[in-house]
């Protein structure tokens, strides 16, 4: 799969149309016998989305490709018009985004597990007995205040949840070609962090020094006395929506990972909504001044993971009720879709295609309301996620003709 | 078109789910006035396939790409998840597979026509009067027992049918960058076999020597007194289904070419079915112990070539009657499709998209039975053949998430 076919000189830079992308995380579903064979979206009472769909172009999206189950990072990059097989976000970077770290180009990040080492230095518990958040935060604070910083570099920890911690190293010339130290079993020593390519040697030294210091500083801790590290990744700046498509953009998302992925592509994050209603309110305040607004709603995915069909239906209906406030801002293009499917009967992200509606004055409506059945009969057909941005730009009048 | 997006580390290796691919060769059809505008598949009475389709995801496959009429090799490679524009099987290799030769990496193969040369050495008949199989086999045996083998190489012939013969050269350092010797007209001399790239010079010498020997040995034959050679190709090993997707695989196919293409991707061929019923019986015996089973049924294609609409309908109905025996083995994923269309009204392979059903507990059924009309309204939409394997692996729970 290649990036979308958009030569830079095809994009109007001075246009004043506005595009809104509403992502219901994990929107796509599977039929449920108790709902008469309907999916979550089909079972939900969504008068506003249905009316919007009936004047929209409909279709089904493969966020990454047929059969491929997207993680949240690739799913969103795709909707933003970035080929997720080309723009790879490493696990360490995604974890850093997830805890809200404001990454700089060249930063090295990794996922750490707090672990218990026995008196012989062997790994006794890879998750340190799953400590409480309070316990986890306590030792992270202890380390951040005690670590000796390597010359020219800044090493810091951010607590995520329970035993999970994010390591950030900032400085010049860091590589991420490093081996994990997690042996993936207990009763053995942790592994050495080694550079597997030139350019990562200094990173390896810094990580080894950090891990040794941590063992020293935490020596008096009974359980939380060391770390296992994996998923090393450096953050590389990627071209922004402004640079690629001339779009000033804003992201409204409650959860840090989604704000983080949005920041990767240059979106502004003016404020953090605490709930669904605030997401819309902050959009009303900040969206109309920008060319592109991204609104992220998480509950559909969460309920899908829980296997809670009715809960996912409720989450969809909650957004439906708020839709008129988005429509009131009169965007030129309004898209509603998901970053992947999380069918309640499957309880996980899945590979199934995701319904999408694209409302604009240039839509080709096919009717039937908003749901998988209507969308697979829609004008847009089935297409890769990266093509959505090209469609949005086109409907917004932001693309010029290709060729003479 | 690229190969399907399946980084190696996305495939679970230890999984115990089972995938079955049933290929009705040339399945796709065209509407026929005498059948009320229905296709062969739509006209066939297929209660078992229809019931299966109604709980399956349906779609339409372009085996190679829109407008492209696939040969049997590319059509099957595509269904196996191998981009047929990347994995090219040369004509000589396909012919060798077709006569059941067990190819080794580096083997050079070509298609030969038995031809008649006149006393001036000009080509009098490019097909030697289309000899009987008995006559063809007779001269092939004569040559195999009389040829002087070049030092370090093994040259052998296998009779295919009538005037068609396969040449195999085995040894180190053979190239296939050779010109054909068939002048494509009569009353002229045959062409010289020349190397067109470095590395094929030795091959050219061996072929020229073989052709000269054949003329000598067959000098006393009135009609079958020489060969025209074309389609030189070397056999290169390609990664197996086991290596790429962790799949142990078995092929049940009556005809050698399909067993040959299956062997190319590492499938085992435990036994050779002599008819449709035996194909299913051998699957019942050998399939359940493997992760992937490929069942090939030829009659649909043969009847299509014959322009025999009703015969193709019968061939489809024969498979339908055997379907319950496949379902009884409870595969996790069962796919039924074709490697291309062979519409009876067209009498040839065609470029038309091919209906496919994919049954699994995670399907998104859309109903309407099994036929072109139902499949083009299906959840899978229209997609390239290479994506089928990704979908199968996903439905079998054999893929991990793409990115975090």
Would you write up a description of this structure?
The structure is a homodimer of 404-residue chains. Chain A is of the alpha/beta class and 404 residues long. Chain A folds into two domains: 8-87 and 239-395, Alkaline Phosphatase, subunit A; 94-234, 2-Layer Sandwich (Alpha-Beta Plaits), CATH 3.30.70. In chain A, 30% of the residues lie in helices and 19% in strands. The first copy, chain A, has 13 helices and twelve strands. Chain A has helices at 40-43, 47-53, 72-79, 91-98, 133-146, 201-217, 241-245, 256-264, 276-286, 299-305, 309-327, 372-376, 387-395, and strands spanning 19-24, 56-62, 108-117, 123-125, 154-161, 164-170, 226-234, 249-253, 292-297, 333-337, 354-359, 381-384. Chain A has a seven-stranded mixed beta sheet with strand order 8-9-1-10-11-2-12, with helices on both faces. In chain A, strands 3, 4, 5, 6 and 7 form a five-stranded antiparallel beta sheet that branches. In chain A, β5 and β6 form a beta hairpin. In chain A, α3 (72-79) crosses α8 (256-264), α4 crosses α8 and α10 runs antiparallel to α11. The model of chain A has no long low-confidence stretch (mean pLDDT 94).
Feature tags:
homodimer, 404 residues, alpha/beta, Alkaline Phosphatase, subunit A, Alpha-Beta Plaits, 2 domains, 5-stranded antiparallel sheet, 12 strands
Topology overview:
The structure is a homodimer of 404-residue chains.
Chain A: E1 19-24, H1 40-43, H2 47-53, E2 56-62, H3 72-79, H4 91-98, E3 108-117, E4 123-125, H5 133-146, E5 154-161, E6 164-170, H6 201-217, E7 226-234, H7 241-245, E8 249-253, H8 256-264, H9 276-286, E9 292-297, H10 299-305, H11 309-327, E10 333-337, E11 354-359, H12 372-376, E12 381-384, H13 387-395
Parallel strand pairs in A: 1-9, 1-10, 2-12, 8-9
Antiparallel strand pairs in A: 2-11, 3-4, 3-6, 3-7, 5-6, 10-11
């Amino acid at each position: 799969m290649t990036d979308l076919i958009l030569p830079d000189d095809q994009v109007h830079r001075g246009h004043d149309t506005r595009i809104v992308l509403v992502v219901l995380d994990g929107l796509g579903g599977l039929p449920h016998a108790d709902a008469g064979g309907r999916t979550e979206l089909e079972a939900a009472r969504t008068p506003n989305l249905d009316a919007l769909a009936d004047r929209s172009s409909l279709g089904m999206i493969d966020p990454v490709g047929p059969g491929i189950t997207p993680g949240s990072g690739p799913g969103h990059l795709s909707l933003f018009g970035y080929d997720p097989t080309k723009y790879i976000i490493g696990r360490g970077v995604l974890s850093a985004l997830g805890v809200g770290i404001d990454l700089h180009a060249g930063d090295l990040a990794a996922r750490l597990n707090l672990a218990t080492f026995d008196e012989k230095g062997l790994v006794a518990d890879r998750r340190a007995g799953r400590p409480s958040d309070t316990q986890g935060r306590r030792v992270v604070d202890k380390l951040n205040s005690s670590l000796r910083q390597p010359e020219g570099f800044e090493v810091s920890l951010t607590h995520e949840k329970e035993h999970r911690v994010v390591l950030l190293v900032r400085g010049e010339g860091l590589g991420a070609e490093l081996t994990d130290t997690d042996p993936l079993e207990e009763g053995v020593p942790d592994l050495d962090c080694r550079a597997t390519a030139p350019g990562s040697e200094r990173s390896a030294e810094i990580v080894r020094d950090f891990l040794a210091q941590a063992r020293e500083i935490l020596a008096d801790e009974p359980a939380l006395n060391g770390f296992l590290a994996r998923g090393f990744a450096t953050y590389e700046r990627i071209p922004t929506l402004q640079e690629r498509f001339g779009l000033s953009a804003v992201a409204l998302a409650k959860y840090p990972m989604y704000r983080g992925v949005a920041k990767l592509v240059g979106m502004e994050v003016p404020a953090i909504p605490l709930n669904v209603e605030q997401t819309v309110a902050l959009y009303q305040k900040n969206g109309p001044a920008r060319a592109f607004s991204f609104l992220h709603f998480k509950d559909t995915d969460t309920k899908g993971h829980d296997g809670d069909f009715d809960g996912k239906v409720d989450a969809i209906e909650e957004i439906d009720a708020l839709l008129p406030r988005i429509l009131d801002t009169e965007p030129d293009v309004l898209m509603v879709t998901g970053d992947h499917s999380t069918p309640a009967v499957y309880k996980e992200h899945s590979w199934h295609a995701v319904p999408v509606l694209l409302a604009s004055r240039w839509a080709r409506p096919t009717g039937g309301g908003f749901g998988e059945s209507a969308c697979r009969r829609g004008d847009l057909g089935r297409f890769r996620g990266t093509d959505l941005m090209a469609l949005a730009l086109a409907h917004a009048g932001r693309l010029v003709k290709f060729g003479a």
